[in-house]
Every structure is written in structure tokens, then in C-alpha cells.
Design goal:
Blueprint lengths: L2 H9 L6 H4 L4 E2 L7 E4 L1 H7 L3 H14 L5 E7 L2 E6 L1 H14 L13 E5 L14 H16 L3 E5 L7 H13 L5 H17 L2 H15 L2 H25 L17 H9 L3 E4 L2 E4 L9 E4 L7 H16 L3 E5 L5 H13 L8 E4 L4 E3 L15 H19 L6 H18 L7 E3 L1 H4 L7 H21 L37 H10 L2 H11 L3 H20 L7 H24 L9
Parallel strand pairs: 5-6, 5-10, 10-11, 12-13
Antiparallel strand pairs: 1-2, 2-4, 3-4, 7-8, 8-9
Helix pairs in contact: 3-4, 5-18, 7-8, 7-9, 9-10, 12-13, 14-15, 17-20, 17-21, 18-20, 19-20, 20-21
The structure holds one RNA strand of 77 nucleotides.
RNA sequence: GCGCCAGUAGCUCAGCCGGAUAGAGCAUCGCCCUUCUAAGGCGAGGGUCAGGGGUUCGAAUCCCUUCUGGCGCGCCA
């Protein structure tokens, strides 16, 4: 529903092309105009005054007012255009209703995007530091899938390294290690003890070597750690609604790094430096990228190179995204540059999607080694518990209250993580994570439930609805097209033209733009913000406009609008991982 | 020291590919449930858009610079 396009097309002439005009046209505030064009740039080009240009364009519209346009004015060098509200309303509402209650994904576009997110470490607890990458990545996966991409979610597990040797030492010495909590305690204890006893570290290294060599005992323990961790993590993923297509992590790439090193060698990219093998990046103003340690062992970058190449071969991606904290900015710039130097033309499709740092309120930093963590499952449990209490208080008879409490509580936590731009640092506050008022997930869910509540009444008395049985009540002349079970009667549009109502409709028309923008910028928050605007606007409409009333035509119009808001909210919420309960 | 990122209301943040009066939420204060869910709505107060230059008809937005904060800069990931 982008009428800027339409306007640009309309105004295009042999003097100015559509493409020149389009970037000049802006959304306006709905009062001075719906869409507007400051004419100063154009005036300079045409060597006329902006006032004159605006007037000429206005006259051009006035001469033959197109059906989508209501009025055009020239004010101080601005061309102000008002949309024909009825026309716009018909356009927008019809399109939304045709998509049905569950918007279908766009047809496949033959493009693949791989997304690396969450990427937890084995034998470490799932804490709030992992929340951002997990939900941002999970949301991006849904957004790209919705847009018709083949979206591949990859959990690049941290399942390799000396820490597993250390854990084995701890298990052998102190026992336990059968649950994630025990593993986490052992990990902390090990580091405490190792402070005074360095031989522990040596033993840890020895045990890790055994894992590498395939020692059955060591391997069995290692696998157990992995199993325990994944089982626990999968519970959290299920709660969050986050999914993966692959769990290929560090251990998966063990046998895939040697060929990469060889390739680097053959291309003459490796140089020796203090005993280590590096790729020099001086000409790109970056420090060298370490490929092999002086003892010949591989490094982080080596693994990421191997993983990127593997992903290209396995998935043939067009875009390869890494949802990883911004601390690793330099690392990814180096890796991508090395890929480019290796001659992979797809290196440009690799993108780091950075996000901010999570710290604990009061200044503490998260540290697994010190045991200074807030477990995600605890936060989620607290949120669900609180949601349950509120339901108990406000709506004790609610059916399925446990499920609703879960949707709302979890929704609050997820939404809190996905509402701000990725790049912002976060000081984690439980109070804020458990906030259900104002700009929160529950606010959106509440608005949706409010819509459903109205609709459940409207379906009894309204026209314009398909009943449960499938007949269309009072709609003999209406045509149903597309996937929706409801259609919009064009005659109803004149009931929805007041400012407050039209503002809701304007916002409804912006849904696809918001989703596209979110994908383009890898920012799920664009969608969260959009939904917030829509919900706020609907709530204002709701307070001032009674939907269920005696004027059946007006009621139908408002019911259909409410239906559209509900559907956009529900489908938008899905893209940012939130459920939309019908009642709460 | 060098590099990257950030600095907008008391707090958390939108707005940043230049446009006409800088917007939300939280917090504070005051209103609105005998009509569709008050997890809601309305109103009030609160801003040198970190400071200073510059470009432009027009700058929170672009450029330069200073300050403040975060992060990174070789054998961890």
C-alpha cells in the first residue's frame, strides 16, 4: 500500500522521472497531508522557485484528480497530498482480509539465508546473556521464511575445547555432573580450585587430549555433557518458540579445518609470525588473522572459515548471517576479508549481525566461571508465574489459564529483548523483564485479545462475516476472493473515514513495509515497533468508537477493521516469536 | 595509542538513506470502568537532540573536531 510510488508515477513527466521523484516524497503527519513532497530540490533543478513548483504540481493533480487522491495543496514550497480515504481503506482492508487469519508466507524466492544464532556452549548454563542472540536469530529466521526465503537456522554449538577436559577432571575428582546445574557448579569449583593448584589445569588439558584422540571413556563423558546440555537447552528453545535446522558446532568442523589451512597455504596467504600462522591484513588496516597457533592447533577464525565454506557448499546461501555480540566485530571483519582474499566471491554475502552487551543491573558482569549468572529458565518461570497471578486476579475464570500465563509471561521476556535496536547495551533488570504494562509484549497481546473479544460478539450480530458454518451472513452481494473467509464490502469504507479510524488503517497499510525493512536491516525491532504503533492507535480508536452498536452498517465496517487489526497483530507477533492468545 | 560503536525528556528508548511544530513507554501529578477486556484511555509537567564548528533554502539526521561511555586490538571463543 505504498502510495508514494503511485504519486511519483502520477507526477512523472518528460522533465522529471518517477525515480527522481520517489525519494523526495515523504510520509506526512496525516494532518498537514498524508504524503508530501518538499519541492526545493526539484525547484533548484528546474530553476524555478519551490513555491511555483509546488503550485504547478498541485495544479497538475487538480486538473485530473486520480481516484486515490482526495486533495492536493501547495504550502510554502511543499506539495501536500491527501489520500482518498475510502479508496485507501478498500485497498488495505481487502488485501488484509484476503490473506486470511494466518498469513501465508510469500512464494519461494529461490534465495537461501543461513542464520547462525544462539550458539550455546556445552556444559554451561543457558543464561540471560544468550537471550538476545537466541530471540533475534529465531525471529530473523521466521521473518525471512515469511518473505519466501529458504531460512536455515544454525546453532553453532560450542562443543570443543579444553573446558571439557577440565570438566572430566572435576567429575572424576568430586563426582556428580549428571545435571546441568551440577556441571555448572563443577565448572565454577574447578576454576576456584585451579587458582591454587595449577596441576588441575594440566590434567584438564590431558583429558581433552584424550577426547581428541577418541579415548572411549573420555568421549563417553563428553557426549554425556553434550546430551545433558542440549536436553536442557531444547526445553528453553521450545518455550521461546525458537527453532534450528542444524546443530553443527565446533566439533563438527574438526576434520574440515585442515583443507582450509591447506588452501590458504596454496594461495600463499599464510605467513609465519612468532611461530604462528597468520593471514596478514595490514593492507586492509586490520591486525593479522590468526589461523594456527605455534603448536599447530587451530583457532576460532580457522573454524569460522571452515564453517562458512561448509555452509556455502551445503546450503548455497545468498546471505550468511551471524547473530553474535558486537565484541566480535573485528573477528568477523577479518574472517570475511580472508574469505574474500581466498577468492570466494560469495564472501560479500556474509554478514555479522551484532547486538549489545548484557550486564547485570548493579554493575555485575555475567561470568559462567564465577557462577555469576541469571538463568534464563528462572526468568521465564518467574514471568509465567507473575502472569498467572495477574490472570488469577483479573480473569480467574479464564479457560486454559496456564497456557495463557505461559504465552504472556514468556512473551514479556522475549519482547523486552526484541523491542530495542540490537546494538543497545542492556542492563538486565528482572523488574523490567517482568513488566506487563506500556510498551510490552503483554500490551500487544492484550490488544489482540481485546480485538478477539469484540469480534466474538460481532460475529453474532454482524454482517460481513462468514459464520462458523461457512455461510456469509447478510452478504448476498459480497464476493469472497483469496484465502480469507471474510471480505470487505466496498460500500462500508465511508464509515471509516474519521481521523482516528483512518490512522489505524494507515498503519495497517504499513505492515509489509515494516517486515521488509526488518529483513533488510536484520532488525526484528522494526516489527515490534510497528506493532506497538498499531496497537496504540487501535486502542485509541477502541476507546472512542463503539464497535458493537445499533447501526449495522457501521458495526460491520468497524468489525472488519477490528478483524484486520487482529490479524496483523497476530501474524506480526508470530514474526517476533510471540503467541497471540484469544483471551487473557 | 589505534580502530569500531554509542551519547535525544529524571529513566529506557524511537526518529538518523536531510524536510514543515523532536515522539513513545516508565516514573510523578490529575482525570476516565451502571456500554465491546482498565494488562486500557485522556490530560499535565519534563528536551541547549553531549559541546563546538561546517555544508545546505532547510541538520537530531551529512562532514570535521572535542568531550564522555562501551567494546576490540596474536596464539580463548
Amino acid at each position: 500500500m505504498d502510495y508514494k510510488q503511485t504519486l511519483a508515477q502520477f507526477l512523472a513527466s518528460d522533465k522529471v522521472s518517477k525515480d527522481e521523484l520517489l525519494p523526495l516524497i515523504v510520509d506526512s503527519d496525516g494532518v498537514r497531508a498524508d504524503i508530501a513532497m518538499p519541492c526545493h530540490k526539484l525547484a533548484a533543478k528546474l530553476k524555478k522557485s519551490p513555491v511555483m513548483v509546488a503550485e504547478e504540481l498541485r495544479d497538475c493533480i487538480k486538473k485530473a484528480v486520480p481516484e486515490w487522491c482526495a486533495d492536493a495543496q501547495a504550502v510554502n514550497g511543499y506539495l501536500n497530498v491527501f489520500l482518498n480515504r475510502e479508496f485507501y481503506t478498500r485497498d488495505v482492508l481487502t488485501a488484509i482480509l484476503q490473506r486470511g487469519d494466518d498469513f501465508p508466507a510469500a512464494p519461494p524466492n529461490d534465495k537461501t539465508v543461513t542464520i547462525d544464532y544462539s550458539s550455546i556452549n556445552i556444559a554451561k548454563p543457558f543464561h540471560i546473556g544468550h537471550l538476545l542472540t537466541t530471540v533475534i536469530g529465531g525471529s530473523l529466521r521466521r521473518i525471512f521464511a515469511f518473505l519466501g526465503y529458504n531460512a536455515v537456522g544454525i546453532n553453532h554449538l560450542g562443543d570443543w575445547g579444553t573446558q571439557f577436559g577440565k570438566l572430566i577432571v572435576a567429575v572424576k575428582k568430586w563426582g556428580g555432573g549428571d545435571t546441568i546445574e551440577e556441571l555448572s557448579r563443577l565448572y565454577v569449583k574447578f576454576h576456584e580450585e585451579a587458582e591454587n593448584d595449577d596441576t588441575l589445569n594440566d590434567e584438564g588439558r590431558k583429558w581433552f587430549k584424550k577426547i581428541e584422540e577418541g579415548d572411549t571413556g573420555a568421549l563417553a563423558l563428553f557426549r554425556k555433557f553434550k546430551e545433558i546440555t542440549l536436553k536442557e537447552a531444547e526445553k528453553v528453545y521450545k518455550t521461546l518458540g525458537v527453532e534450528f535446522d542444524s546443530y553443527a558446532g565446533e566439533s563438527f568442523y574438526n576434520d574440515k579445518m585442515a583443507p582450509v589451512v591447506e588452501l590458504l597455504e596454496n594461495k600463499g596467504l599464510l605467513t609465519e609470525s612468532d611461530g604462528a600462522k597468520v593471514v596478514d591484513l595490514k593492507q586492509y588496516d586490520m591486525p593479522p588473522c590468526l589461523i594456527l597457533k605455534s603448536d599447530g592447533a587451530s583457532l576460532y577464525a580457522t573454524r569460522d572459515l571452515a564453517a562458512a565454506i561448509y555452509r556455502k557448499n551445503a546450503y548455497d546461501f545468498n546471505q550468511n548471517l551471524y547473530v553474535v555480540a558486537y565484541q566480535q566485530n573485528l573477528h568477523f571483519r577479518q574472517v570475511f576479508k580472508v574469505l574474500e582474499m581466498m577468492g570466494f566471491d560469495w564472501a560479500g554475502g556474509c554478514k555479522h549481525v551484532p547486538f549489545g552487551m548484557v550486564s547485570l543491573e548493579g554493575g555485575g558482569s555475567l561470568s559462567t566461571r564465577k557462577g555469576n549468572v541469571v538463568l534464563l529458565k528462572d526468568v521465564l518461570a518467574a514471568a509465567v508465574e507473575k502472569a498467572g497471578r495477574i490472570i488469577e486476579e483479573k480473569n480467574p475464570d479464564l479457560e486454559g489459564r496456564d497456557a495463557v500465563a505461559k504465552s504472556v509471561g514468556v512473551g514479556a521476556v522475549i519482547f523486552g529483548a526484541i523491542f530495542n535496536s540490537r546494538i543497545k547495551d542492556v542492563s538486565f533488570s528482572l523488574d523490567k523483564a517482568l513488566s506487563f504494562e506500556g510498551e510490552t509484549g503483554p500490551y500487544l497481546q492484550y490488544t489482540y485479545a481485546r480485538c478477539r473479544s469484540v469480534l466474538s460478539r460481532g460475529e453474532v450480530s454482524g454482517i460481513g462475516y462468514k459464520t462458523e458454518q461457512g455461510s456469509i451472513r447478510g452478504l448476498a452481494s459480497y464476493q469472497v476472493s483469496g484465502g480469507g473467509d471474510v471480505c470487505f464490502d466496498p460500500k462500508l469504507a465511508d464509515e471509516l473515514t474519521d481521523d482516528q479510524t483512518f490512522e489505524v488503517i494507515r498503519l495497517l497499510g504499513g505492515f509489509d513495509g515494516a517486515v521488509a525493512e526488518a529483513a533488510k536491516t536484520y532488525e526484528p525491532s522494526v516489527i515490534s515497533r510497528y506493532l506497538m504503533d498499531l496497537a496504540q492507535s487501535f486502542n485509541r480508536f477502541y476507546i472512542d468508537h463503539r464497535v458493537i452498536n445499533d447501526d449495522k452498517k457501521m458495526q460491520s465496517a468497524r468489525l472488519l477493521l477490528t478483524r484486520c487489526v487482529a490479524n496483523v497483530l497476530k501474524n506480526g507477533l508470530k514474526l517476533v516469536l510471540l503467541d497471540a492468545p484469544k483471551k487473557m
